[in-house]
Amino acid sequence: xxxxxxxxxxxxxxxxxxxxxxxxxxxxxxxxxxxxxxxxxxxxxxxxxxxxxxxxxxxxxxxxxxxxxxxxxxxxxxxxxxxxxxxxxxxxxxxxxxxxxxxxxxxxxxxxxxxxxxxxxxxxxxxxxxxxxxxxxxxxxxxxxxx
Length: 147
What we know:
This protein has 147 residues and is an alpha+beta fold. The protein has helices at 2-19, 127-138, and strands at 28-30, 34-41, 46-54, 60-67, 72-75, 80-81, 86-93, 99-109, 116-125. The chain has a single domain, classed as Immunoglobulins (Immunoglobulin-like). Strands 2-9-8-4-6 form a five-stranded mixed β-sheet. The protein has a four-stranded antiparallel β-sheet with strand order 1-3-7-5, with no helix packed on it.
């Protein structure tokens, strides 16, 4: 009976610990979690700032911002961000290879159990394909309607 009681107590304790896991969204609020670069030219690196606000009651530290691959380079703030203050994580993408991309940056906030993910998406076009895309954008074809 004692063993059963200890087992049940351990089970309840571990369940309550898991129920109290903190999420990064509880400490920082990002304006957006996904940025679409649209169509970009191959070999022309791009960047985007993911602004956020510290919505917790204490200063927060962005412990890490880890990219899903070497083509993405995040820059995180150094030091603590005070309660209610804004900052940003800058996501850079090298646009080296043509084709669609969907990359992520895993953001870990110090003292928070679950990280969050930022995403950048878009399509890299070769120089020729990008020139054609830009020309079509500048001079859209008019569609004739039947009379």
